[in-house]
Amino acid sequence: MLTRSAARLLSTQTRAFSTSSARQTKVAVLGAGGGIGQPLSLLLKIDPLVSSLSLYDIRGAPGVAADVSHIDTESTVKGYTADQLDEALEGVKVVVIPAGVPRKPGMTRDDLFNTNASIVRDLATSVGRVAPEAHILVISNPVNSTVPIVARTLEKAGVFDPRRVFGVTTLDVVRAARFLGEVSGNDPKNTVVPVVGGHSGATIVPLLSQNAYGKAISGEAYAALVRRIQFGGDEVVKAKDGAGSATLSMAYAGAKFTNALLRGLNGEKGVITPTFVKNNVFADKGVDFFSSNVELGQNGVEKIYPIGPLSAEEEKLLEACLPDLKKNIEKGYAFVA
Ligand code: NAD
Ligand code: LMR
User: Fold this and answer.
1) pTM value?
2) Separation of 237 CA from ligand 2 center, angstroms?
3) Which of 72, 139, 269, 310 counts the most CB atoms within 10 A of its CB?
4) Which residues belong to the annotated binding site?
């Protein structure tokens, strides 16, 4: 039986999903058997904008699909085994990728590159061939490199559209709202701040000055808050003590971003959230991908917003972010070349 707080969470999540639109969508999860994949599949099953769920993994997806398919929402669910990737991708409009290994204590996200780069490249190759118009949401780390890998792979196949490839950085936004809420004594819904840049350590740049409560934080409290947002992932990796990294909060963040994209695809206006996409925000610094606020619409990325006014501290954070981010992006490109 669900505890009262779990029931409240589920009903909040269901209410958080818009039901206003008639058009519904087929969504695939690649890596559905994993720590993120399972709860993400659950949350997508209760999203009314998902009409059909295609769950793929090299192990365990049919079991997850059978389980999730008993949930009393309208969408249909099917699981696919290792040799059924093409079938899993047929007709999908949105592909979410949490496939790949997670960190253990002492590792950086970049340490995952050797394993995850080829997993993501191979999955992107199949998406490019079977569902070339699909929107691809990359969760697998290191996001700063895996997103350029997906982009280059699709480019080589002649099907890359920068409006349809996203690095999911929503967990950084979720953490920033939660942690600022905690230190300022507010409901996180009032402490939302844009988090720009990339998704690892110093490349994560929270723009606290763009929220009234965030602007009021200074000195040591400011430094500690920025550090906690930048290294929130390490906090979970350490606490899990070798059993992986964030899965539940990531599934929540992944479902939240997927719902935002689906609302945009279905014609809702004003859906704006940070996401790591190819853009010109710092092209003059040789940085091809950068997370900043993006308006999502019927074609995916409709508009990329400038990062807005920065405090002196944020200027410094950005200065530290850009060279690291550039290196991570180039490493991804080099892998595909
Ligand atoms: P996990 O090991 O629990 O699950 C990964 C799943 O991927 C497994 O079920 C595995 O069988 C599957 N897989 C491996 N190769 C595959 C392939 N070729 N095709 C399909 N499936 C394949 O790991 P997890 O905790 O779910 O994390 C997954 C990834 O997400 C990691 O790289 C992790 O670092 C990353 N992550 C990203 C964020 C973010 O904010 N973007 C947050 C948390 C975790
Ligand atoms: C996170 O931010 O929690 C993820 O990127 C997983 C990790 O390795 O920290």
Assistant:
1) 0.95
2) 8
3) 139
4) 31-37, 57, 103, 109, 116, 139-141, 175, 250
